[in-house]
Amino acid sequence: MENTYLTKKDVIKLNKDTYIVTFENIKFELGQFIMIETKNLVRKPFILGTWNNHPAISVQIKGKGTEYIVKTQNNIKAHFPLGKKFIPPSGKGMVIISPTCITLANLITKEYNCDVLVGSKTPLEYKIPFEFATGDVEFANKVEKLKKYDWYLISGSKAMENFVLSKIESNNIYVSLEEYMGCGIGACKSCAVFTKNGVKHICTDGPIFRRDEL
Ligand code: FES
């Protein structure tokens, strides 16, 4: 694991409150995440992905810490890569995500055969190369019309995840749980989840899990 300062490259506004932040080169595997330190505030986890051929995260501004990550001109102190590599099953996949996981979706499409549906609460202000829906009604319509895929990855709010899970049936559904982490390195135990296979830690056993394991 590296513990170093990252140079921000670009900041792209996606919608009202969510931004893609790209970095100079760092090494990581699909499904891994990064913990970013913010001034006087707790570390924050972000699933890693790519944008414009650069490592990237997407950040929803929810408070001072996330605002700092988006707006600072300084290098950002970060710990990475963390978590387990995600390897989807064979066949064609469907990645259903909120804008906060768009860089992950982008990376998956580069490595695996899959489609992407992005559900955004507010209109996108930036052209993305994926199918998207704005607002709950349009998103629900698009999810209900999805064809059958061999595997699914869902990453967004709990409400979004529950809605999608109520509409699809598959033995190969994966969810990303990165929002629940404290230290990111297996030390604080704050990310423990009870699974069918015993207690797991999101930061070391995840952040992407099979849904039927949870
Ligand atoms: S976040 Fe601390 S143990 Fe997982």
Automatic annotation (TrEMBL):
InterPro entries: Cyt_c3_hydrogenase_gsu, Dihydroorotate_DH_ele_sf, Dihydroorotate_DH_Fe-S-bd, FNR_nucleotide-bd, PyrK_electron_transfer. Residues 178-214 form the Dihydroorotate dehydrogenase electron transfer subunit iron-sulphur cluster binding domain. Keywords: FAD, Flavoprotein. The keyword Flavoprotein applies. Belongs to the PyrK family. This is Dihydroorotate dehydrogenase. It comes from Thermosipho affectus.
